[in-house]
Amino acid sequence: MKYQMLHKQLIYCWQKWLLPILMPATVEIVVLTFGVLSILGSTAPMSHAQAVFPTSIAGNAQLISTTRHIEEQQTPSKSTVLNATVYRSPDCNCCGGWIAHLKAQGFKITDFSTPDIETVKQKYNVPDNLSSCHTAIVNGYVIEGHVPADDIKRLLQEKPNVVGLSVPQMPVGTPGMEMGNRKDPFSVLSFDRQNSVAVFNKYGGES
Predict the structure, then answer these.
(1) Among 55-59, 108-112, 160-164, whose mean pLDDT is lowest?
(2) Torsions phi, psi of 144, nearest 5?
C-alpha cells in the first residue's frame, strides 16, 4: 500500500509539474534537429531554411551568399597569357623599342636576333607589301612591324579568322618609332591566307 501511494504521488508530480516544463523544450529540440537534418540532406532553397530557423539567421545566410556573389563579379578574371616571340635583325634599334612597349603592356617576350629576317617573313606568309623591320608570333597570330599593344590585345580577344596584323614600313610615332611630338598617320592592317587586306585600326597624325 505504501509503495502504491508513493507511485501515485510520483505520477501526479510528473503530470502536474515536470511534464509542462519539459514538454515544450523537448518539442523545440526535436523540431530544430529535424530542420537541420532536412537542410543538410536536401537541396531545398533558402526559403525552407527561413521556415525552420529564425528569420535573422536565414537572412544573414542570404546576405553572406549575396556578398560573396558580388565579390566574385568584381574580381577580374584571369587574362590570356600574352606570349610574343619576336624575330628581328640584330642591327635594328627600333625593334628594341617596340619590344619594350610590349613588355610594359604585360607581354612575355622571347627575342630572336637573326641576320635572315626575310626567311622568317616567308615562313609566316607575310605579304611583301605589308612587311616591316620585325616579325612576331603572338598566340598563333603573325604581328608584322610596330603594331600597338592595344591592337594585339583586341585581336586576341576577338579572334578573327586572319593570319595576323601589320603596320607596313616604319611610320614615325608608332611604338618604338617615337620622335618627339611627331606622329605620322598610319593604319593597322589585317591579312588572311588569301592575302586579303582590311583596315583593323587607324591612327591620325600631327606634324
Answers:
(1) 55-59
(2) -110, 120
Residue with cell 635594328: 92
Report whether 117 contacts 134 (CB < 8 A).
yes
Residue 87's nearest CA partner among 36, 124, 130 is 124
What's the distance, Cα to Cα, between the start and end of the chain in Å?
123
Q: Report the candidate in 193, 177, 190, 191 with the shortest Cα–Cα distance to residue 201.
A: 190
DSSP conformation letters of the chain: -HHHHHHHHHHHHIIIIIHHHHHHHHHHHHHHHHHHHHHHTS---HHHHHHHS-HHHHHHHHHHHHHHHHHHHHSPPPPPP-EEEEEE-TT-SHHHHHHHHHHHTT-EEEEEE-S-HHHHHHHTT--GGG--SEEEEETTEEEEES--HHHHHHHHHH--SSSEEEE-S--TTSTT--BTTBB--EEEEEE-TT--EEEEEEE--B-
Give pTM, 2 decimals.
0.61
